[in-house]
Specification:
Largest sheet: none
Number of strands: 0
Shape: globular
Helix content: over 70%
Structural class: mainly alpha
Strand content: under 5%
Order of helices and strands: HHHHHHHH
Distance between the termini: 26 Å
């Protein structure tokens, strides 16, 4: 069994679905007049749905060269949707289009597309081990994602859902602080790349991410059961829950790496 194939398929299956859903969220956030942008978003939905299905068809025994070529193909698609997202961000900031897509949302999902493309490039270059600098950098990336999610949830819940809105704001503050701490560690590298410091860093983040993941799961279930008032699409609620769960799996992998080095 190839570690390269296994890790590639994990990334491909997770992120291709995320990219497909990003395109869907963009499509329903445009105004009815933005027909060309809606059409482009739907084309990306179809592209990443095909990628998702193809990734499911492969397994751990697939020839590594086949996966390497597939990674290259998907890398091009990820770069393309990144460029589309940045173009839409520019249109919104310049007030050339309206709709319901927050500028921060466009920046957020374009960062994820860039992350996906870069991860595929790294895998094809043989960069698979969770090195010390990768632990800090990965957490900086995902802590920002979690902070953004908290802000989106707070803004998309109905204002009358006061308790949930307050909880979302508390999570936003918590993850902003964790992000600042992670950035401080990053700025102090390589002196912060010790096992005790990285272990404490991961433990602290795990507690907050697990708490946010559970909050997202509760919110998703309430939204699906129509028990709370919001303009959050049920798929978006599930989408942000899966990303928090994915971050927890990454923290697990880093912790296993540190333990193995002990």
């Amino acid at each position: 069994m190839s570690t390269f194939v296994t890790q590639s398929l994990e990334e491909l299956r997770f992120w291709s679905r995320i990219m497909k859903e990003h395109a869907f969220f963009l499509s329903i956030g445009f105004t009815a007049d933005d027909t060309k942008l809606i059409q482009q978003a739907k084309q990306y939905m179809a592209i990443f749905e095909r990628i998702e299905e193809q990734a499911k068809a492969y397994n751990e025994e697939t020839d590594p060269e086949v996966i390497r070529q597939f990674n290259t193909q998907v890398y091009q698609a990820a770069v393309s949707i990144w460029a589309f997202k940045r173009t839409v961000l520019g249109l919104i900031v310049d007030c050339r289009i309206g709709g319901n897509n927050f500028p921060l949302l466009l920046d957020h999902i374009s960062r994820e597309a860039a992350y996906f493309a870069n991860r595929l490039k790294e895998l094809n270059e043989g960069k698979m081990k969770p090195l010390a600098d990768a632990i800090i950098k990965e957490n900086v990336f995902f802590l920002k994602i979690m902070a953004d999610h908290s802000k989106f949830i707070g803004h998309l819940l109905d204002p009358s859902e006061r308790k949930l809105v307050d909880q979302a704001r508390e999570f936003s503050h918590d993850f902003d602080q964790l992000l600042y701490q992670a950035q401080d560690l990053d700025h102090m590298r390589p002196y912060t790349e010790t096992k005790p410091m990285l272990g404490q860093f991961l433990d602290q983040n795990r507690v907050s991410v697990a708490s946010l993941r559970d909050f997202k799961k509760t919110a998703r279930d309430l939204i699906e059961a129509c028990k709370i008032k919001s303009i959050i699409h049920p798929l978006l609620a599930d989408h942000v829950y899966r990303e928090a769960d994915h971050f927890l799996h990454i923290i697990d992998a880093f912790e296993e790496h540190l333990t193995a080095q002990s």
